[in-house]
């Protein structure tokens, strides 16, 4: 029985490592092309920061997995640092989904009231706030140093769980509203990032929630259900890696072989967007 468990954990470990390495390559390509070769609009800024957050999460996981395999050591600090990238990506996806939903449901108000650099400011705030949002409960619960403050740990951890679940709910509700609005209510063409948002939200619902649950109940799950941790980590890595497949699929034209830059330009470049009256508006005017 012990040998079977060892074999299973080893298979999951190396499968997770392979998925993470593939995701690093895919997200690295998105960062390279979107950062240097594709004209960015407000929505593609979110995609750029999402790819950066996924790269951070996958890179930390790969690095700490190699250290764990080489030295046989497992430190709670590894999980905390890795979770920063995961939480940042969750926050970015919630903001991305909400803004795209608002731009489709209330197009006139969105185009007239939205400040020009909203996407960049929001992404910067998310990166700045994700660090204390993860590190404060980890510090209070003894994951960064020896010693635990039970009351502070309980308060910070409850706030952290509420925050993460609220972000997941915002992303899922915004994606659902967008799906219903485009399918049943809107007469306009599908928005540019419709498939990207719906695919990312579906991945969030299927693959990310177990990892949030593991963050919430880590000591209990490690004691009662040790199999949960490697499976939740595998699903989280699948979620971070599969977004790039969504980008490539949404930009690819069947039957045509095109350079990757052209595919990503079609999927992620939003240098122009349809206005309310069907006119093409430059993104610098939004």
Automatic annotation (TrEMBL):
Keywords: Cell membrane, G-protein coupled receptor, Membrane, Receptor, Transducer, Transmembrane, Transmembrane helix. One of its GO terms (molecular function) is G protein-coupled receptor activity. Residues 26-247 form the G-protein coupled receptors family 1 profile domain. GO terms for cellular component: plasma membrane. The chain crosses the membrane at residues 12-34, 46-71, 77-98, 119-140, 160-181, 193-214, 220-238. It is found in: Cell membrane. It is a multi-pass membrane protein. It comes from the Eukaryota. Belongs to the G-protein coupled receptor 1 family. Mas subfamily. This is MAS related GPR family member G. It comes from Rhinolophus ferrumequinum.
